[in-house]
Fold:
Amino acid sequence: MRILRSRRFVHAAIALAVFLVVAGLYRLETAHRGTRILLDLENGFRDSILTVGGRHNPVDPRLVFLGIDNASRSLTSLDLQNRDLAPDSAEYRALSLMLEPWPWSREVYALLCERLLTAGARAVVFDISFPTPNRGDDALQEVIRRFPDRIVLGSNLVLETIGPGQQAWTWSIPSTSILPDSSPEHPSVGYVVFNFWEFDAVIRRAQYQATLEQLQGLAPSNEQAKTAPASLGFRAASKLAPVQLDHPFQPKLFRFTGPPYTYPAIPVYQVFTYWKQNFDDGAAFKDKVVMVGAAGSIFQDEKITPFGLMPGPELHLNVINALLRNAFLREIPPWASDLLIACAVLAAWGLTVLVRKTWVRFAAFFLLVIAYLVAVRIVHDRADTILLAIPPVLAFAIAGLVSFIYDFTHETLEKLRIRRTLEAYVSKDVVREVLDNPESYLSKLGGERERVALIMTDLRGFTTMSEEMDSTQLVAQLNEYLSIMVDDIFSRRGSVDKFIGDAILAVWGHVKSEGPAQDATLAVEAALLMRESLRRLNADWETRGLKSFHMGIGVNYGEVIFGNIGSSRKMEPTVIGDAVNTASRLEGLTKDYGRDLLIGEAAADLIGQSFKLQFVDKVTMKGKTKPLRIYSVVSRGDEPVDPKMTAYLEAYNLAHASYSAGNFKEAKSLFENCLPHSPDDALVRMYIDRCATLIDRPSEGAWTGVHIADHK
Structure:
């Protein structure tokens, strides 16, 4: 049972559960079952890699886009008259036909093909479907006959009704009035569909070959590739170079050439109006593949891509360019995706088990997520491989968050259990005051402002210790520690206000005050007793093979509200207020300054000559605006000070004065002079580091000598 309850086992169970949920959900989504949350997030991240600084396929200069745009469709008779063209010229004939109502006579396309192919174009590819007979078909048929294998016409897929309530996919191919032997497999026919399988309508893949049987779920064989219908992109690319695909019937993730208008559309009418000026008598088209298609939203032939809407013909050019350069992206297999998710939850488990500090854990989680996403991008751009990004990151984050919630809840409940066990500890002074003057005490329980001295203590690393130690031994050791600490507090007439897990809040002056100076003096005396008692206790535990405790103590003096606080079912007398918070923050600062006891300026001013103090720093605590002077205790005022300590304090005070004046180079040197007197002094070493930092990065504005604490 202890194994089942162990922290590592619990976090391992959390990691396994997260893996099963995330990996299972992603598998279902990729099989197009259920939701698409993970799949949409993953696709969105992949699109962002491409669109935000991602590597693009270089532009192939052999590809040209001739666009049927608004300008080409809006010609007027004035445009024709102003050209000074011979009435019997091809240019005059083409422009005259373009003046007719849309759709144009197909003789326009015949004249366009004749001009381009005669000039040396490799091929003219139409992202246009010609499924029915129309005027000018004979002219286009004649051009196709004269230039065999150099003109590619578009075909499409349409749903046809084959019976009551029944539909089936079929090919819509060019009319036989243009291509007498027209068929889906004809080498001069290419389908204009990009991909049949993108369920979010965003074009990322290209289907270079396909069959109707494939749409019905039947897998075609590679042998069928020689005679199977091919895409417009496949037909066009084959005019420039031999193309061969390992898996011709599988959709290919292709690398885009760039955002929309990377291939700018040249208006079709310019081929007949600016042939010499713009195209050097056709030399600009020599050895080029010319894509002819709609340019402009009026034709509603814009496709959704990761970059946004892109003209269909330009998207075909991206697909052609990718095939010519073999610029395809590889997706890792499903088992590798599962492995990445498993590695993510395993990493979350390792961080949770090994790193106990909350801020360190969160920082590590954040940095690992960033590092992984950067690695995904690098692999995408440099290795043409797509690693799964969002599901592993999500699994990593969920496993880490759930584990943190478990740790936080477990720690809270553990401290609560210890607190309830030790509630029997009550100050004798409180009992005596209640018995001697119950009315006064009861009236105070309603709520009264008092000026009190406070001690706040806390054990460092207690959470880790509570996980590592046997629970019975931990309770016994903690009880022994608390018993001695409470005895020291009681010996100086203090009252234990509360136990907060392993922390102690003690108060002087809320029930019966000895006077501000005496209350503060008693609190400091108790703190010194507690420090000395813990040293003796640790020495004893060491002989018994037990772990040592390390305590921080904060002493403060200020105004609090004392009263009976709680619910109708459970109440307790306690103090609340800013002075309590300051005592707690003083305790928290002990770790930063290498001192196990720190005193606030209000208490330091009250104790006068009762103790020898060392000025530590001037600090503005988090959430505060007024700086606070803090001190450590060197010795009691009536005790002789060791000469070495005196020399150390003189050197320290000189260094700190230079630091306060903003002379950081001098201060650094003077602080270094303190080390021979006290080589292990963490406070001095902290100031040396701080001076070095301030030398490299001076503070903005005038130097005030105040340090801003960045934590509570």
